[in-house]
Amino acid sequence: MLGTLVGLAMLVAATVVFSYYTLWTLAMPFVDLDHPLHSFFPPREWAIRIPVILILLGSAVVGSFLSVVMIRSNRKKAAKAKAAASKKKA
Question: DSSP string covering 16-74, please?
């Protein structure tokens, strides 16, 4: 039950963010600059900056995770090889 609620909350959050971003990027350029609706949205240049920042941050996190996994895997292989070599000597 908890998983269903979490999934529903994530779906609602994604829908709200998508709707807000779509309205901001596709509809707001056609609204007059002095209209009060503009007070609910940041300047238009952030419509490009925010996704670029999120993509760069996500790529850095994924790259860091993969690097850590590869380093740990290599250490395990080196330890196994060292243990096998010491068994051969004995």
Answer: HHHHHHHIIIIIGGGS-TTSGGGGGS--TTHHHHHHHHHHHHHHHHHHHHHHHHHHHHH
Contact 28, 41 (CB under 8 A): yes
User: Tokens standing for 16?
Assistant: 């709200």
Q: How far is CA 63 from CA 55, 56, 59, 75, in A?
A: 12, 10, 6, 18
Q: 9-47 pLDDT, tens per residue?
A: 999 999 999 999 999 999 999 999 999 999 999 999 999
Q: Would you give the distance in Å from CA 35 to the centre of its chain?
A: 33
Amino acid at residue number 60: A
The encoded tokens of residue 88 equal: 């051969």
Phi-psi region of 32 (alpha: psi -120 to 50; beta: other; left: phi over 0): beta
- What is the pTM assigned to this prediction? 0.72
